[in-house]
Amino acid sequence: MENELLIRLGTFVGLFAVLAIVEAVMPRRKRAQPRQTRWTTNLSIIAIDTLTLRLMNILVPLLAVGAALDAASLGWGLFNMVALPVWIEVLATIVILDLAIWVQHLIFHKVPILWRLHRVHHADRDFDVTTALRFHPIEIAASMIIKIGAVYLLGAPALGVILFEVILNGSAMFNHANIRLPLGLDRVLRQIVVTPDMHRVHHSVHHDETDSNYGFCLSIWDRIFGTYTDQPRDGHDDMTIGLEWQNDDPSKLGWSLMLPFQRK
């Protein structure tokens, strides 16, 4: 586990760079706002989120991977109470944690006080690789606490947690990317994973579309629980991304950080 940070950081930087280049070469939609302004804000939020997790690591020494190691040493959690092959535990960890993230995402939409935090993500008027990481730091902290709890209950192996974190970050950047996939490839991929065209529907200004396609990695959960929407009613080229703030406010750092505390 010594190289966990290097593995995750290297994967993140490499995939981010690749997707950013593909967005520039073959974009799916025209941008509503200048990239420089939005990216400055979104990347600043990402930096603040990273510092938040580093601070949590001081105050709460066991984050997700640490919780997996601690659960194993204490014998806590399902997988530490049953004898299963390691590969089954790792695969099950990835699938079950993906479902847990789906449930968490749904809850953050349905509970008003949590939605106030999550709408920072949805307020972005464009949809690209930086949107994938635009979350209010309080939401990031809350999400980590939920994830730690899930890891303890599951008794998830550390390898499974590391792979899940890499897959989660990678799939989130992929399905938020402003890239144009061939429609045939999109139809095939979305049978298994969430594609950009599938997740873009979730960022529609129309509430019923925002209230669908909650998945980040596996697309099966939205199909199982009846929250799947195939295409946006206005089409991908003409649909409006974001919430009610269709001005320059969402691209401002201070405004974005204070959004959860604004009166409706």
Computed Rg: 18 Å
Query: How many strands, what sense, and barrel or not for the largest sheet?
Result: none
- In what range is the share of β-strand residues? under 5%
Low-pLDDT stretches = none
Tally of individual helices = 13
Question: What are the secondary-structure elements, in order, as H or E?
Answer: HHHHHHHHHHHHH
Strands, total number: 0
Into which percent range does the helicity of residues fall? 55-70%
The rough form would be described as globular
Keywords:
264 residues, mainly alpha, 13 helices, 61% helix
Topology readout:
Layout: H1 4-25, H2 35-59, H3 64-74, H4 86-110, H5 112-122, H6 137-154, H7 158-176, H8 183-189, H9 196-200, H10 207-210, H11 220-224, H12 235-238, H13 253-258
Helix pairs in contact: 1-7, 2-6, 3-6, 3-7, 4-5, 4-6, 4-7
